[in-house]
Amino acid sequence: MARALLLLASLVVFGNVFTVHSAFSPSLIVEMAKLFMDNYAFPEKLAGMQEAIGEATSNTEILNIPDASTLASVLTAGVQGTINDQRVVVSYEPNYVPISAPAVPPLPPDQLIDIIKSSVKLDVLENNIGYMRIDHIMGEAMAEKIGPLLLENIWNKVLPTSALIFDLRHAATGEVSGIPYIVSYFTDAEPAIHIDDVYDRPSDTTTELWSLSTLLGQRYGTTKDLIVLTSAHTTGIAEDVAYALKSLKRATIVGEKTAGGSVKIDKLKVGETDFYVSVPVAKSTSPITGKTWEGVGVTPCVSVDAAEALDAAVKIITLRSQIPAVVQAAAGLVAENYAFAQIGEDVAGKLKGLLEKGHYGMVNSEEELKAKLSADLIELSGDKNLKTAGNTLAMLPLENPTPEMLADLIKLSFHTDVLENNIGYLRFDMFGDFDQVAAVAQIIVEHIWSKIVHTDALVLDLRYNIGGPTSSIAGFCSYFFDADKQILLDKLYNRRTDAISEMWTLPDLTGPRYGLKKSLIILTSEVTSGAAEEFVYIMKKVGRAMIVGEVTNGGSHPPEKFRVGKTDVFLSIPVIHSDTAQGPAWEGAGISPHIPVPADSALDKAKEILSTHLAGRK
């Protein structure tokens, strides 16, 4: 009721803005309001209009305006602003003559063919990509009349193409009965699909539109790519076609958001005046989405300027034609190189299965392909490190660094402290490559290790360590054992070489060892991953350290990068795994701490444990 009163008030108030001598009867406003009430396809916006009209009939004020056209413009602005619908227009047209579509006169076939060819633009682009432009969606009657000619001169040339670009950028007219015809050519015969519900307000009836089981000629089918081009000028029935194909996930919409028109707008004469109201008298509601495109438009899957839509569509189709080879090549790389052979083969098989089911059929860009492929690899394997990788260069080492530069860099990379009770603290957030570490080992010993090596116990903080190369782990482990006996730390299986290598403590080190006897606590969190997890795993397995904190990330040994064919798609594939002779190691599952506490409480817990332990020794 409130909305209806506001609407009617806007009509009356806007009409009373002017105070010159041209006058119109208030009944004009009442008649306009009744037209809305009886014909507007969204009656929920007009609740209470009947009561409002009754109240308005007693209003004896005269509409004072400069001229009828100005009044029409003011009323249009008032109505559009009140019901938030730009499709409603009030106009003053004393010379308006209703236009009705002329009947198609009997024409010889050659003239009909010429009309068809001028109405439908057809082309076959490079790589057998079909292109078809239609500016008017013909209805059932016309389709039946010229169907055989359409089939012979247009559709039969479209059928052999490998993919189709359906251009509706200029389509602004059409008939509702043409919607199921077009959509059906891009769906299967069975089962029938409920495409649309069209509600007609004047008759208060709803017509269900279903796909057709029988058609003239062959269907384009559901497996070949279909791209629909749209623009801000695409309106009405063409919007319905685009929305239906998008909702069915049968087509990719490329271009601009459509106009947000209506399946049917009627121009209604206001009484015996020369005023007219253009109003949506029918509305479309998709039974697939439960929503409508009317008033809001169809949002494209890929937004580009209308002028660039055709080129964008060709790029998408070209990319999609390459996807099967990319996915199959990726599956092959995983099967041949993933550290856990059986898992790799299973993942590869499932990846091919997804491809066969059309899982990658609606990919629109290389970035989307990479993201989708990466997500699939992670989900199928349960390994966060089996994924697509960026094509980035490794960080380059400093060129000709001075000892002072290296010392400053090392100080930034490590954090040390000596806590109460002579408890050492060491934090670093990434492991380095053995050769790089060896080159600066003496500097690390002088500036970092010397500060903590003589403490009575040590807290090694790996809560923020994200991994890095594993080549330096044996050397780092060695500092926490004595030199008189080498310890077998781990056995590593390399899938690429099909060989097992043994990791032992090193007999010779730079600087003094921390040794085997002093207490060591390692702090972990869910961030701790990769090489850091391998270090924690070893130290826990051999009983050298107590682990305090959270379960680690469950990553993998540092993956290697593989290029997929000659594309710009790269895979990150772990090729090495720890010894599984005694069961699964840490890959995938992570490492459980001896004492589980939240990561932010781990340091306090470690200090408490070590302080108690050291106090007991005194």
What report would you give on this structure?
The strands form seven sheets. The protein has a six-stranded mixed beta sheet, sandwiched between helices. It is an alpha/beta fold. The protein is 35% helix and 21% strand. Helix 8 links the parallel strand 11 and strand 12. The N terminus is likely disordered. Helix 1 packs antiparallel against helix 4, helix 2 runs antiparallel to helix 3 and helix 9 packs antiparallel against helix 10. The protein is built from 17 helices and 27 strands.
Number of helices: 17
* Order of adjacent strands in the largest pleated sheet: 4-5-7-11-12-15
Helix content: 25-40%
Distance between the termini: 87 Å
Q: Output the structural class.
A: alpha/beta
Largest sheet: 6 strands, mixed
Principal-axis shape equals elongated
Number of strands: 27
Strand content: 15-25%
Radius of gyration: 37 Å
Mean pLDDT level: 87
Spans where pLDDT lies below 50 across 5 or more residues: 1-6, 12-22, 56-62
Keywords:
618 residues, alpha/beta, six-stranded mixed β-sheet, 17 helices, disordered N terminus
Produce a short descriptive summary.
The protein contains 17 helices and 27 strands. With 618 residues, the chain is an alpha/beta fold.
